[in-house]
Amino acid sequence: MPTMNVSLTAEMADFVEAEVSSGDYVSASEVVRDALRIMRHEKEQQGIKLSLLRDEIERGYHEMEKGEFSDRSIDDIARAVRRESEA
Fold first, then answer.
1. What pTM did the predictor assign?
2. Residues 7-40: b if buried by 16+ CB within 10 A, e if exposed
3. Mean pLDDT, residues 45-50 taken together
């Protein structure tokens, strides 16, 4: 596994040390790897949400061009997007 040196703020270093001290992680490397996995997952979720939003906008645009309008509110659409992204 490649080794990488990183600089952390004192607050971040304290957090990493606390996570290791709690026994949830064996090493600082484990904490950082888990944080990066979470960050990757969040970015993937953001991409999915953005794709769903673009699909909704495109659908709405085409409906508008045909003179068809949705009676869904922005809140309705946001709830649908959240449901789809959680699936």
1. 0.64
2. eeeeeeeeebeebbeeeebeeeeebbeeeeeeee
3. 96
